[in-house]
Structures are given as structure tokens and as C-alpha cells.
Amino acid sequence: MVVKKNGSERAVIILHEIYGINQYIMELADFFYEQGYDTYCLNLNHRENCFSYSEQEEAYAYFKTKIGFEVDKEVESFIKKLGSEYNHVIVFGSSVGATIAWRLSKNRYCSGMIGFYGSRIRDYLEVDPDCPCLLLFAEDEEAFCVDDIVFQLRKKKDVRATVLEGKHGFADRYAKNYRIDLSKIAFDMVECFLKEIEE
Asked: Where is the Dienelactone hydrolase domain positioned along the sequence (predicted)?
């Protein structure tokens, strides 16, 4: 786990993609820290080194066989722990991390949930969050129709689901699908969302 504390009454738990805690995840921690949050990057892979982007297939296989979405039980106990220490606990996830965060949005200690391109959320549409959620999807997902999923998600209370015109990975400046314009839009939306739920 990587922790950055500034003595805040607010915390964010960052759930990484299949690759682990890489530079992108560390920059997300910096972003939330600059917003006034203590940040906790959980190492769900339980590996010392992260996978590189060129090891995508190996990283995905590792996630499926060694981790899985049921890792949310591990994160749930950590949310509970932080819930007794902080006034607000936000869960942020990117890709598989977003799907895990979505599954945790019913946790009573979770004050808010943010997810970037959580494509597997489509397998957990029965979740009805108990906290405000901001979900940003990439328009160009090959495996499913994003608009159909977003349509269903928007029917849920306190869920904001938005589709941005890029591809999966648009906010990760180290990824091949990075788009600086979409990244700026995404992080501006996150800042607004954080301000709203803090009120």
C-alpha cells in the first residue's frame, strides 16, 4: 500500500487497474492529495512490482486467476477501518478498480465512488449504490455497447454516468489511448463531484 497523508478529515482509497500501482496510479494519488485528501493506494495484486503495459495479457490472467472482483471483501474491511478515522471516505477505481469500487458503493462507510472506464460494471448492474457515484466511460469499448449500460446506470439514484468520446485509458498519460483533452474534462468533473459531495 502507498499512503500520502496531510492530516485531512477526508480520505480516498485508490483501486488500480490490472497492472498494479504504477506511475499512473501514483499520479492519481497526487491529484487527490492536492484536492485535500489523504490517499491510500491499495496493492490488490500483492506483488512488489507492477506489470508493464506490454504485459497486458499476463496482467489480466493474473487478475482473473489470483485476484478477481471478490477482492472487494478485502477492500470493504479497509473502508470500514477508515470510516472510523475520517469524516468522508471516497473510493476511486480505474478499469477493474472501477468495477470493484462500484461493487463497494453500497458500503455504509463509503461517502462517494468515482470510476474511470469500469467496463465490467456491466456485469453488476444489480448494484444500487448508497452513496453518490461518478462513472466516466470511454465511448469506444469493443466488448459492449456503452450507451446501453449508461442508460441503465442513469436510472439509479445518485449515479452520474458520462460517456467521453475516447478509448479505454483516455485519462492515463502513459497509455496508448491517452487523450489530454478528455483527461482534463475527466479530472475537472472529478473536482466538481468532490466539491458537491463535501457540502
From this structure: 5-187
The DSSP bridge partners found for residue 4 are 39
pTM above 0.90, yes or no: yes
CB 166 within 8 A of CB 143: no
pLDDT tens, residue by residue, 3-62: 888 888 999 999 999 999 999 999 999 999 999 999 999 999 999 899 999 999 999 999
Burial class (CB in 10 A: 0-12, 13-18, 19+), 57: exposed
Q: Yes or no: say if 117 and 98 are a contact pair by the CB < 8 Å rule.
A: yes
**How crowded is residue 154: how many other Cβ atoms within 10 Å of its Cβ?**
12
Burial class from Cβ neighbours inside 10 Å (0-12, 13-18, 19+) for residue 153 reads buried
